[in-house]
């Protein structure tokens, strides 16, 4: 019993640390929702550049927005809501709150792979609870909302550090 209480005590600081990590990796909501930074892009190329930059910069915020939209689409489906909450905990543990990289079969798994895997697991788990149409509509709404914001949000005041820029493919490998 003493070992269980030690592991429970160790888990609490780890959870607090992960929550702080989540808070640190997401961008301020005031920056995301700054109306003065919204403008129409001049061209398709600028729109895609903005989308790429903003999706990388605000990725945690956009993931939270998508999860909230998906949650709202399941309000009248209690079993799906329970499944969603379990999957949401997986999102928190594997993508939003972790500090160390995910390691599978002795290899480090890239964040984008974790993101895609969690998205697929979310859709499959909820589709198995027979709310496929609700999930599809909620995901389409989330995609449209996030993509529209990313295209309209100017990137002039958003600065990535070197590691974020390299992850987003913004740095050249040629020096």
TrEMBL record:
It is found in: Membrane. It comes from Salvia splendens (Scarlet sage). Pfam families: PRA1 (PF03208). The keyword Transmembrane helix applies. Keywords: Membrane, Transmembrane, Transmembrane helix, Transport. May be involved in both secretory and endocytic intracellular trafficking in the endosomal/prevacuolar compartments. This is PRA1 family protein. The keyword Nucleotide-binding does not apply. GO terms for biological process: vesicle-mediated transport. It is a multi-pass membrane protein.
